[in-house]
Design brief:
The protein is α/β, with parallel strands linked by helices. It has one domain: Hypothetical Protein Aq_1857, Chain: A (Sandwich). Helix content is 19%, strand content 37%. The chain has two helices and seven strands; from the N terminus they run βαββββαββ. The strands form two sheets. It has a four-stranded mixed sheet. The chain has a three-stranded mixed sheet with strand order 1-6-7. The chain is globular and about 35 Å long. The two termini are 26 Å apart.
């Protein structure tokens, strides 16, 4: 499984875990296909992974990823955008070249 988390996304994830979780909590990221818009995401802060989740650590952040998410995130860059028009995680997926290459999650 290979995906990239930008420094902006990493800061957002750390902030969310710090605000909503305790020691050992993780960031659960469940993505699903979003058609031409790329990927849709549901996020939550969990003390433990849900059954079937893989625990992936990146720079000290624990990500809890369901099986479908692990497949869909292959090769994806996870970024965070905070603009007047959009706030949330943005997924840059090179496999979606024929459509819009990102989708946002409103935070």
């Amino acid at each position: 499984m290979s995906f990239t988390i930008t420094p902006a996304a990493e800061r957002f994830i750390r902030l969310m875990v710090r605000a909503d979780g305790g020691v050992g909590s993780g960031f659960r990221l469940a993505v699903s296909p979003g058609g031409c818009s790329g990927l849709n995401a549901e996020i939550s802060i969990c003390g433990e992974p849900v059954a079937g989740d893989a625990v992936v650590e990146s720079n000290g952040i624990k990500l809890f990823l369901p099986a479908e998410s692990r497949i869909l995130l292959e090769g994806v860059t996870i970024d965070f955008r905070d603009t007047p028009a959009q706030t949330g995680l943005v997924f840059h997926d090179p496999k979606q070249a024929s459509c819009s290459s990102h989708s946002a999650l409103n935070a």
